[in-house]
Amino acid sequence: MLRIGVLVSGRGSNLQALIDNVEAGKLKARIALVISDNPEAQAIKRCQKHGVPCKVLRREDFPSKKAFEEEMVRALKEAGVELVVLAGFMRILSKHFIEHFPERVINVHPSLLPSFKGLEAQRQAVEYGARFSGCTVHLVDETVDGGPVIVQAVVPVLPEDTAESLAERILKWEHRILPQAVQWFAEGRVSVEGRKVLVEGARYGTLPVNPELEGF
Ligand code: GRF
Asked: Is the CB of 100 under 6 A from ligand 1?
């Protein structure tokens, strides 16, 4: 079974979605280790509740970013982790870290990349006046939110939306596409050709996301 490591910094609702799908037997992977860089993260309580191994590593306890990342790599390798999942991890990983897990570090981001990279992506979408946004699971490279896309889901941005209401709508989809992406890796169906991620046998449908046009 694919052994995954999950890096978190906060609430951990995406971690919870992974735990729930593993417990339901739909996601055939083992959460071998969760690492939180924040000792106060709600994600830690979720691990305790579900018997998932969890380690807190605070950046401040290391002399450099390199030393901090090396300890994360050591702990992940020790746990036999093959796929690293960033689920609300609020730090940018160096090329050095990523090279330890080639094409096997993924992240979930609350926008349709390449739109609205970085922090507060949902607020950015509302303030921009976009009609659609969504979420993306992508491979992590040394750029911020710039690696090849694995899967995206689209949601409408409604005229009355706030950053919070849009975030809630997007989050429901994050909780579906992240476990799906991990399951694709678990099934060995993912290959990467340049910027294109191919998922063997995946069906790409047309979502009913378009507005109802009036007479057109
Ligand atoms: C999610 O919106 C995720 O897309 C972003 O950070 C948030 C983490 O939420 N990278 P949670 O900790 O999984 O609840």
From this structure: no
- Topology of domain 108-216, CATH: Rossmann fold (3.40.50)
CATH class of 1-102: alpha beta
Neighbours of 161 (CB within 10 A): 18
Instruction: State the CB neighbour count (10 A cutoff) for residue 6.
Output: 29
Closest CA to 124 of 170, 85, 90: 170
The residue ranges of every structural domain in the chain are 1-102, 108-216
pTM: 0.96
- Rounded to whole angstroms, the Cα distance separating 17 from 72 reads 23
Nearest CA to ligand 1 atom 1: 88
What is the overall mean pLDDT for the chain? 96
Please list the alpha-helical segments (H only) found in 107-190: 121-128, 163-186
